[in-house]
Amino acid sequence: MYQVKESSTAEQLKNIIALRYEILRKPWDQPAETATDDLEHISTNAFITDKDENVIACGRLQENENKVGQVRYMAVNNLYQGKGLGKLILKFLEEKAKEKKLVTIELQARENAVKFYQNNGYSIQEKSFLLWGIIQHYRMVKTL
After folding, report:
1. Which of 97, 110, 129, 140 has the fewest other C-beta atoms within 10 Å?
2. How far is CA 5 from the centre of its chain?
């Protein structure tokens, strides 16, 4: 029913960043500019829309050194959580990583998302950092 798309327009990217802000930044009173960075133009942004073309799920793959991909900015609209959209986005990004001949994907998972990533084949490497002094993160990896 839901289809993952790859962002190809400025409008799509704007809507993706808006969802990131709503889910990943706004609840902690963080500024909107923290929902993006200067790597957007060289990264793969995946997203899913509802029937009205509103972005309801998103995630990004960037290529780091040594054929390592990094998944960042995974977000699902609260009304759509638990419906498998995050898994669809993650699988899409993993396929893109394979197309790019990347060998490993790493990510920084918020504590409440660790189980999701473990269920999708990622393993914890270390407890990494405390975002804004509030949200514990864990570095996780998966070999492709």
Report:
1. 129
2. 14
Domain extents in the chain: 5-103
Q: Which of 141, 37, 18, 19 is nearest to 85 (CA)?
A: 19
CATH number for the domain formed by residue range(s) 5-103: 3.40.630.30
Partners of 135 in beta bridges = 131
Predicted model pTM: 0.96
pLDDT tens digits, one per residue of 3-49:
999 999 999 999 999 999 999 999 999 999 999 999 999 999 999 99
Show the DSSP H helices in the chain as ranges.
Answer: 10-20, 85-99, 114-119
The tokens describing 98, both together, are 């394979």
Radius of gyration over every alpha carbon of the chain, rounded to an integer in angstroms: 14
Q: Which helix (H) or strand (E) holds 108?
A: strand 104-110
